[in-house]
Amino acid sequence: MTRHAMLDAAAADDPLAALELPVEAMSAEALRGRFETEGAVIVRGLLQDARIADLRAALQAMIVAQLRHAGLFPDPAADLDSLFNALCTHDRALGAAVYEAARQTPAFYALATHPWIQDVVRTLLDADLLHVPYDKAMFRIDRAHEPWHEFQWHQDYPYNLMGEPTVTVWAPLTPVTGAMGPLHIVPRSHDRLQRVRLVPKTGPDGLPRSTLTATLADLDEAALDATAVKVCLEPGDVLFFHHLLLHRSGRNASPRARWSLVPRYAALLDPGLVSRGWAIERSPDFALFREMHPDAVAGAED
Predict the structure, then answer these.
(1) Which pLDDT tens digit goes with each residue over 101-121?
(2) Domains in the chain and their CATH numbers?
């Protein structure tokens, strides 16, 4: 049996295997086939250089600096999670400061625009020039017992409104195990834009915020949970998925955080982007999405 036949046979028994490609088996045909059919593709071992370690080292140095500034003297050789948990225990706002500032480091940009990530995205989009807005290149630190940071079932398109399609890239900095609430996805759910209901986000105090979130208006979330695939990844693995693929955050039940890089890529010369001067969704109330897709926004009476 050939290697590709073995991969196809494994996929028949394991829904996650249907999305996977080891880097040595990667080809344009295989990448596009999985992305177009499943709405997602996982390239195992794609990032095999030092850039993940560089970003981890920058984060570790930032956390140690904040702890020392607060009058605490941690062991600088302690692991990333131990240091971050100590910082958040002392003052959760200092943890949020590290989270925000991490996206301002060269190490973050070097990983978010990694040439091997760009090569895969160019293949998936069949595009030479790429659009990767700085404010849509996200960084996440998902800790246990902080459900207000979780996203329920959604599609990325209403939040970004980039090209058709846009590729979301999800790359972990540390191992993401089943206990850490990995990303949940529903393969083959990327065929259409779903109607959404725009409701206020809820903060740690349980009170609504001014920023809105786009919740699914018509789908049964319990049914999505029943068909979801949990994406456990190692550092170096990268998940690429379509902007209409249904997905949600998992619930982290471990003492370790999910550290992940999440940039979005589209074709720079996508006709829709060009026609509106590369305007994308940046409004806290989804103003551009409402304007472009009024029928996709459910009213209070729905």
Answers:
(1) 999 999 999 999 999 999 999
(2) 3-47+134-296 (2.60.120), 48-113 (no CATH)
